[in-house]
Amino acid sequence: MVSKIVSTLVAIAMAAFMGTGLAFADEDLAKVGEKTFKRKCKLCHEATKEKNKLGPNLVGIIGRKAGSVEGFKKYSDALKNSGVVWDEESLTKWIAKPKDFIPGNNMKGFPGFKKEKDRTAVVAYLKSLSAK
Ligand code: HEC
What we know:
This protein is mostly helical and 132 residues long. Helices cover 55% and strands 0% of the residues. The chain has five helices and no strands. The chain has helices at residues 2-40, 77-80, 88-96, 98-101, 116-131. Helix 3 packs antiparallel against helix 5. The chain starts with a helix and ends with a helix. Bound molecules: heme C.
């Protein structure tokens, strides 16, 4: 009887531990992504304020229709007419190789991330901003 209670408690403790472990892993990934974003994207994009640079701002990018920032005049027709709504999957493909995902786009200064880790980290960062 006692051992059953103990093993139940152990199971609960382990579940709780694994749960927080997962949350930490997500947060770590978003932190890595923030650094990568600063190095590779921030030159052209703000993600935390609605300010356009060489590229449109990325505030609330998850769930946003491609090419829909008002006041950003330099969108390509290719992006505007792509019919894409940004989610994790489309963002990951976009930053893997923009010109393959939407041919004729205007994000010429960024060829794409070869490393999967870079892609997932940056998308995790953008997602963490949307969650706030
Ligand atoms: C040299 C400047 C430059 C860099 C670097 C750059 N971008 Fe862009 N980005 C642009 C431009 C310009 C556009 C508009 C493209 C078009 O209209 O075809 C764009 C468009 C986008 C869009 C679509 C936005 C919308 O409103 O639909 C996303 C998402 C995006 N970039 C993410 C990123 C991410 C993430 C990085 C870093 C990995 C990055 N970009 C790096 C210039 C840049």
